[in-house]
Request: fold
Amino acid sequence: MIDAHCDLLYQLWRHDYNVNQSDALQFDLEKWRASPIKVQAFAIFVPDTTPLNQQFDVALKMIDLFYEKIVLPNPDIIQIQSKLELENLQPHQLGAILTLEGCHPIGTDLNNLVRLIDEGVRIVGLTWNNNNAVSDSVMSIEGKGVSRFGEEVIQLLNAEQIWTDVSHLSVRGFDDVIDQADHVIASHSNAYRICQHRRNLTDQQIKAIIKRDGLIGVTFVPEFTKSSDFVSIDDLFEHIDHFIELGAEDQLCFGSDFDGITNTISGLENVTGYHRFKKELFDHYSRRIVNKISSENFIRKFPRIN
Reply:
């Protein structure tokens, strides 16, 4: 199985947690190895409260943590930068992918994004919940779309064969990405028809991603799943059912958002919950569909070949 989004790097930067095992983490290396997740995407998430002149340095620090804590000390963990590397993972190996959640750390300097791509970033979210020089976010009152600088960012991502991530993006920004980006992903978003949260995708947006042969990461954020104090795995299946009913079985993957959330779905309190989730997936859907959304869709669409 593959997970397209977690915030472990943010937690390691913010706290002195033991990456090997910590009860405070929903994702650590012990839990990862005990789970069915074969490949995990690790987001570089710089809080927007970080002073502007320090944001890019914090992003680089999170990359250092990725190498120092996750990749270099663990021979079984391989950094994934291409589809070829993804396909060549051995049975005893795990894959780790760097992603960027929000372009605010690059400011208005395209060279900063080039640096992050050179370090291995393979999914780039244009915004988090804050506006930046690339685009407004879904939380913006004005909801402006992609700026002229943002167009340059998308052109670079196209040239470098990198996913453009629309999760957190304004509605107008989403439409701009659909028009301009070669490789579209919503790394951690659910269906608005099922749960009316502004971070979720409308039917029109889902159909647009289907038309572009993009990817949608079903997320485990409780408030994106159901407007209730208690959220179960069955509630998550309502979203998957809806995506499939709209024709998105070739677009689905998972983007848990572990360590980016405080509340959790019952049975999915941490990454080891994927065992139960996987079993229930097979109870609900055919093996063909489960295999697609567990890993095949993600691998097939990985933009950079080698």
